[in-house]
Write a structure and sequence with these properties.
The protein is mostly helical and 491 residues long. The protein is 71% helix and 0% strand. It is built from 20 helices and no strands.
């Protein structure tokens, strides 16, 4: 079930919220959690019921491993590390089988000229996210950071539908105490109002802005011709803003939906295109993933505790594996390596005492991020190189044919003074560049949705009807055409 589908926000979400609080109001607090777990599993199975057993098996195995770790802790502590290794191996094995099997088989076939048939497995929805979340849980158990082991609570922690599919990636200790707080079992209209408004903003981002940029980005990446300078930049920038508004829109909707249950999910986006360096970018973009990579990969590798050279290696490996987490392909690996190398250079630059003025620092950071997104989006390395070459001016600086035709039309109209203005000449690339300018300025200089919703101390019904209703009307007009999948569903 998609967040941007009418059946979700008109039927499923309101029903889940209303029934949850009605059961709580009757005093059946555990039954309310059972309802929410059942609703979350239905939400997951709605996409593909075949993989419901997979997430249930993952929950059971990880909970069992955590239980054995708790028993080991109550004894002499022995065996906890071995159980942790076994649990992490299980999770990575599950993720590797479904997500990376065909990638490795294809590369073995290419390297050794073998003909091993591909498994052609369908990637289970959310497997990357619930796998990382449960690995973090096991590590926290091993570190004695988990103090509550109720099975129902654990099921809710893993399956809670607002953040199940694409995050934010949460810790048990930051979410479950909220569910155990009896004050949160009472419907709070202020949170509902904030949640509806935040959900509406995210929905608008996705179906109006991101899906529009998707048309231009898909067209550019599908074009096999060598793009000129402006055409290449139009393609790359279209994807840069598609991805931003798509994933930040999803996160707004996730945080907004959770807020209706009085649950505060962690911030996942903080205007990342305002960043003045690449480290700042990763403190703002997909913040819960950055936190996970830092706490459960970078620090266990040694972090910055073993000297500069080892620190650089750890940074690079962390982002190389972070790229691989996003997808089974060389484009993702290269994208991760690009960011890893950029972070190494930035750290070396900073430790040497160098600095840069704000404007050139922002330009350099944004251009790098934009170039890297081309590798992230491309179907293969050749496509990425083709578009990057165009961005660098290797294919010339001539106006694209559509823009040239537009220019020639208006030139002829002004010189000859005849003819009527045709609507189609006002559209095309001119519309694209106007949209890129407007929504680029919004992303770089505007307040983000969390700031907008958080600026008011209280929201009333009229606030929601006025702002949220207006957003919903515009959004529904776009949804009437189609309901597209969120980009991070693919990862």
């Amino acid at each position: 079930m998609l967040f941007n589908s009418p059946e979700y926000f008109f039927v499923f979400l309101p029903l889940a919220v209303v029934v949850y609080f009605l059961i709580n109001r009757a005093g059946y607090y555990r039954a309310a959690k059972v309802w929410l777990v059942g609703a979350s599993l239905y939400f997951y199975a709605y996409w593909n019921a075949a993989y419901l057993g997979l997430i249930l098996a993952s929950i059971l195995v990880n909970y069992s491993v955590a239980g054995r770790m708790r028993t080991a802790h109550n004894g002499n502590g022995g065996g906890s590390k071995a159980l942790l290794v076994a649990g992490v191996t299980f999770n990575l094995g599950l993720l590797g089988y479904f997500k990376y099997s065909d990638f490795f088989i294809a590369n073995i076939n290419a390297l050794l000229s073998t003909h091993i048939p591909l498994l052609e497995l369908l990637l289970p929805l959310a497997i990357s996210f619930f796998t990382f979340q449960q690995i973090a849980y096991l590590v926290d158990c091993h570190r004695y950071n988990i103090h509550e082991y109720d099975f129902l609570n654990y099921c809710l922690f893993v399956s809670f539908f607002p953040q199940l599919i694409a995050g934010p990636i949460v810790h048990h200790r930051e979410m479950m105490p909220q569910f155990m707080n009896r004050e949160n079992a009472v419907l709070q209209w202020d949170n509902v109002a904030r949640g509806v408004l935040l959900f509406s903003i995210g929905l608008f981002k996705k179906v109006v802005i991101a899906d529009t940029f998707a048309i231009w980005a898909d067209e550019g990446f599908a074009n096999t011709a060598e793009p000129g300078f402006l055409a290449a930049w139009q393609t790359s920038l279209s994807y840069t803003f598609q991805l931003y508004y798509d994933f930040s829109g999803y996160t707004d909707m996730a945080i907004g939906a959770a807020l209706m249950f009085n649950i505060h999910l962690p911030l996942n986006f903080n205007s990342p295109y305002k960043s003045l360096d690449i480290q700042d970018f990763w403190r703002r973009w997909h913040m819960t993933l950055s936190r996970w990579l830092r706490d459960y990969l970078y620090i266990p590798l040694g972090g910055n505790r073993r000297g500069p050279s080892r620190t650089y290696v750890n940074i690079f490996l962390t982002f190389l594996l972070g790229g691989l987490w996003h997808g089974a392909g060389w484009t993702f690996i290269i994208w991760g390596a690009m960011h890893g190398m950029a972070l190494v250079i930035h750290r070396r630059w900073s430790t040497a005492g160098y600095s840069m003025a704000a404007v050139p620092a922002w330009i350099l950071t944004f251009i790098f991020v934009n170039f890297a997104w081309v590798m992230f989006r491309a179907e293969d390395v050749d496509t990425a190189v083709r578009i990057m070459s165009g961005m660098a001016g290797a294919n010339g600086f001539a106006l694209p044919e559509a823009l040239l035709a537009n220019y020639q039309y208006w030139q002829g109209l002004l010189l000859e003074g005849v003819g009527d203005v045709a609507v189609d000449h006002l559209l095309g690339p001119v519309t694209t560049w106007c949209a890129l300018l407007v929504f680029g300025l919004v992303a770089v200089f505007g307040r983000n949705s969390i700031q907008i919703v958080g600026e008011r101390t209280r929201f009333g019904v009229l606030d929601v009807l006025r702002v949220g209703g207006g957003v919903f009307i515009v959004t529904m007009l776009s949804i009437a055409a189609s309901s597209s999948v969120f980009l991070y569903f693919n990862f």
